[in-house]
Structure formats: structure tokens, C-alpha cells
Design brief:
With 343 residues, the chain is an alpha/beta fold. The protein has twelve helices and 15 strands. The strands form three sheets. Strands 13-12-8-11-10-9-15 form a seven-stranded mixed beta sheet. Strands 4-3-2-5-6-7 form a six-stranded parallel beta sheet, sandwiched between helices. It has a two-stranded antiparallel ribbon with strand order 1-14. Helix 6 packs antiparallel against helix 11, helix 6 crosses helix 12 and helix 11 crosses helix 12. The longest helix has 19 residues. The protein starts with 5 loop residues before the first strand and ends with a helix. The N terminus is likely disordered.
């Protein structure tokens, strides 16, 4: 079984809509012990923000251990139209859940204990994460953790240097059959896999970073982080990205841009073949986020997330080389060289 729960330590990276009045009692600080449980959101330009706020602030059970979203800073992308056009509507939406809107990250940090960094634009994550790290607050950074492998390395190194736990994940990591596959009680050792998901492109981000990352993360969840070479076939409507793992294991991702789209895939094992199962929505991810806020234990290691980013950047490089295989070691070396050069 793959152990996905470790502490971040310094140096680890070396090498439902209810009205506000309906929530008055549950949000009353005298009713809830909010010390350490006040959640702040950075970025109201993605549906993830409203989904998390709704789940946390309208659930009356102990499922989320008393964590509530109490404040949000809306920005967020200011340059990607499909993102910034959502902000006014999402401000109105989260206000229904008694979420205070603030005008800066600094103001947000004074009013909250833990952070959901939800800004859709990965280019902003380094800038927005640094004050959170400096404040010593645990933070979940939504996909993509950055808009380049080099910036992802910078983010994780900064978090490790300041000894602040941080993780990033896609909700596709929690498809319904994945736990069975990881426990090896269904198919045995995983010999190969393929996954598929929508793969819309955004000019400001490497191709797979914007949406294809969902299917790529599902693939890596069952295959593990050790992909060695990547080959990509690209057309206007489809991407097919194939990786080779140790022991000659092959994993592939199919990115969909035309026709019926969805999420899925298969795993090929020593004892059987199994689908990845159904997409389970945001709840399984949110449970892991809340457990992380409570314990500081990350459910997805920095190494695994960085391996996903090596794969995605290698896919772009393979596209530039007309489908030639690209070593992930080459991509890692180039990214680290860029980190050292620019600081």
C-alpha cells in the first residue's frame, strides 16, 4: 500500500444554499469553539471556493470538526476572463454563508487560522502563499499548485524553510475504487493504468496544468511518482500522454476537448483489471483537508505533486519535439537550474 501521509519537515525537498439567517446559530462563536478552526479563503474565482464554503458552513454534524469559513479575499485572477468574471457572483454566494469579505490577504490572516488558497490562476500562488507561510498558518493550495514546475519547487521549499505544512491535490485522487486499488486487495500490484478527463487549455498555463491535471493526478495516484519518460501525441481535440515507470510499467492519460467528456480510467494489475470508479465530488478531498488542518499531516507528499508536474512539463516538451520521448530527469534538472538562477 502506498503511504500518502507524512509530516512536512524542513529539507524534505532536497534532491445546498441556505440564507445567512439559517446559519446564525451554527456560526455563533459562543456555540462553536472557533479557536484554530476559522478558515480563510483566498480567491473567489473558482467554484471550488463556493463548494467548500457551502459544505463547511451548512453542515451541522461533526464531520468537519467545527471548521467554518469565516472570511474570504476575492482575488483571484485579474487577467483570465473565465475566472475573474465569476468573482462578483461568488462574492454574493459566500455571503449567504456568513463569510466576511476582506480587501487584502493581510486582513484575511488576522481573522482566520487556516487557509484554502483557491485562486484559479496558478501564476499567483507563490506570491499569495508566502504571507500565509510567514504567518505560520497551514494552507491547502488548490490545483495547480503553480503554473510551472520551477514555481512549484519554490513554493514547497519556502514552506519547508518556514516549517509550515502545505499540500495540493485534485478531487480526482478520490475516485471510488482508488482506495481498493492502493490497498492491493483488488488487483494486486499495479502493472499499468490509463486515465481520462477533460483537458481544456488556457494560454497562460502549460497545457495540462489548467484542467488535464485532474486526470493526470488520478493516474499518478495509482501508478506512483516514479515516471521516467514521457511521450505526447497532440491534436486540436485530444491529447494522449504516455509515461514509462520503473519495471517497464506504462501509464497513459487521455485529455478530452471534443464530444462527450468525463472522468475515468482503468488499472491493470497482477490479479485483475478494475476501473478507477466514479468521481466522488469534493467531500472526500475536504475531509482530508480538515484532517490536515487538525494534524499538520499532509495526505499528498510534495514529492508526489512535483512528480505530477514533471510529467506535465515533460508532456509540453514532447509536444515541442513533435512527440519525441522526454526524460523527467531532464525536466527536473532544467527546473532546478531555473530556480537557482532566478532565486
Amino acid at each position: 500500500m502506498i503511504n500518502r501521509r507524512i509530516f512536512i519537515k524542513s529539507g524534505v525537498l532536497a534532491g445546498m444554499g441556505l440564507l445567512a439567517s439559517d446559519l446564525a446559530f451554527s456560526m455563533d462563536p459562543e456555540h462553536l469553539n472557533l479557536y484554530g478552526k476559522r478558515v480563510g479563503i483566498i480567491g473567489l474565482d473558482t467554484s471550488h471556493s463556493t463548494a467548500f464554503a457551502k459544505l463547511l458552513n451548512t453542515t451541522d454534524t461533526d464531520e468537519y470538526k467545527g471548521y467554518k469559513v469565516t472570511a474570504a479575499y476575492p482575488y483571484g485572477s485579474r487577467t483570465i476572463e473565465s475566472s475573474y468574471n465569476r468573482i462578483p457572483g461568488y462574492i454574493d454566494e459566500v455571503k449567504k454563508y456568513n463569510v466576511e469579505i476582506v480587501d487584502s490577504i493581510e486582513a484575511l490572516l488576522k481573522k482566520t487560522d487556516v487557509i484554502l488558497l483557491e485562486t484559479n490562476d496558478g501564476r499567483l500562488h507563490m506570491e499569495q502563499a508566502l504571507p500565509v507561510f510567514k504567518a505560520g498558518k497551514r494552507v491547502f493550495i488548490d490545483k495547480p499548485v503553480a503554473a510551472s514546475l520551477a514555481d512549484a519547487i519554490r513554493i514547497y521549499r519556502a514552506a519547508a524553510d518556514m516549517n509550515v505544512p502545505v499540500f495540493s491535490a485534485s478531487s480526482l485522487r478520490y475516485m471510488s475504487n482508488i482506495d481498493k486499488i492502493l490497498n492491493e486487495d483488488a488487483v494486486g500490484k499495479v502493472l499499468g493504468a490509463h486515465s481520462f478527463s477533460p483537458c481544456t487549455l488556457e494560454a497562460t498555463h502549460p497545457d495540462l496544468f489548467w484542467y488535464g491535471i485532474h486526470g493526470v493526478e488520478a493516474l499518478f495516484t495509482v501508478m506512483g511518482p516514479d515516471c521516467k519518460t514521457v511521450t505526447r501525441i497532440h491534436t486540436t481535440d485530444t491529447d494522449l500522454v504516455t509515461g514509462i515507470w520503473p519495471d517497464s510499467r506504462i501509464g497513459s492519460f487521455r485529455g478530452l476537448r471534443k464530444g462527450k467528456t468525463g472522468y475515468g480510467g482503468h488499472v491493470f494489475g497482477e490479479k485483475g483489471i478494475m476501473t478507477l470508479g466514479d468521481y466522488n465530488g469534493y467531500i472526500p478531498l475536504l475531509r482530508d483537508i480538515i484532517s490536515f488542518f487538525e494534524t499538520g499531516i499532509v495526505p499528498v507528499t510534495p514529492e508526489e505533486t512535483l512528480a505530477i508536474f514533471k510529467f506535465m512539463e515533460a508532456a509540453d516538451e514532447s509536444k515541442r519535439r513533435n512527440g519525441a520521448p522526454v526524460s523527467t530527469d531532464e525536466i527536473w534538472y532544467t527546473a532546478n537550474k531555473n530556480v537557482k538562477k532566478t532565486g
